[in-house]
Amino acid sequence: MKDTKQKLSNLTIFLHWTTGLTIITLAVIGVYMSENEAFELYPIHKSIGVLIFALIIIRVYWRFVNGWLQPVTQYKAIEHNLAKTIHWVLIIATVVMPISGFIMSGAGGYGVSVFGLEIIAAQFDPIAKEAIPHNAQLAGFMAQTHEIAGWTIIVAIVLHITGAIKHHFIDKDNTLRRMLGKN
Ligand code: HEM
Ligand code: HEM
């Protein structure tokens, strides 16, 4: 079933909340671990990031097959355009984050594993006790991309949630209820 103005499909609702809440969790872990050098969290962050990529791809595919959501009622053009722009930023950053993280870790020689299952082997210098990059330039570029896209998605999520709260409590419309499957 496709999304309609009145009701969203179960797939849209499922994919929005699974990927959305996982991305919020990854962003919180990502900022915390890199600011505090909490290296024990890195494997968890990477494992969840790789796994959620599968759902992200299905989500993006579904969004293009299904089309964007229709607003529940008529809004001012500026409000509608702002929401649309933020949806685009969110969906693009959602794809950029796992890809840049994967390449940054792989090319940087740190390796990528999913809960212990090795996907790209780490390459460590046992004497200097540091990673030997396969491609330092690529790793550096991807690290910058991951950081910039990371902060962009955090700002976009804050604006997005502010919008959802505004619709629910100020406009008192069905926008949030529709995404919760409660209409
Ligand atoms: C949707 C998926 C992901 C989200 C939302 C996310 C988010 C973030 C954020 C916000 C940061 C902090 C900003 C920064 O320092 O770069 C971060 C750091 C990091 N992420 Fe991700 N990430 C995701 C997937 C991945 C994946 C798949 C990998 C690797 C396989 C990865 C590896 C890392 C690493 C190594 C850091 C620390 C970088 C540093 O120490 O400077 N991330 N992530
Ligand atoms: C507590 C957190 C969140 C709330 C309350 C929330 C709420 C909503 C609501 C009510 C809509 C429907 C908008 C409409 O009808 O036009 C929506 C759509 C959307 N949200 Fe969220 N959202 C949250 C987190 C996220 C996160 C973290 C992402 C990042 C990936 C995200 C990405 C999107 C996108 C891309 C859409 C457009 C429809 C779709 O592709 O599913 N949301 N959100």
Summarize the structure.
The protein has 183 residues and is mainly alpha-helical.
Summarize the structure in words.
By secondary structure, the protein is mainly alpha-helical. It has a single domain, classed as Fumarate Reductase Cytochrome B subunit (Up-down Bundle), CATH 1.20.950. The strands form two sheets. Strands 1-2 form a two-stranded antiparallel ribbon. β3 and β4 form a beta hairpin. α3 packs antiparallel against α4. It binds protoporphyrin IX containing FE (2 copies). One protoporphyrin IX containing FE (HEM) binds next to α1, α2, α3 and α4. This is Cytochrome b561.
Shape: elongated
Number of domain units: 1
The total beta strand count reads: 4
CATH T-level fold name: Fumarate Reductase Cytochrome B subunit
Features:
single chain; two-stranded antiparallel ribbon; binds protoporphyrin IX containing FE; mainly alpha; 183 residues; elongated; Fumarate Reductase Cytochrome B subunit; transmembrane; iron; membrane; heme binding
Topology at a glance:
Blueprint: H1 10-36, H2 42-66, H3 77-107, E1 112-114, E2 117-120, E3 124-125, E4 130-131, H4 136-170, H5 175-179
Antiparallel strand pairs: 1-2, 3-4
Bound molecules: protoporphyrin IX containing FE (2 copies).
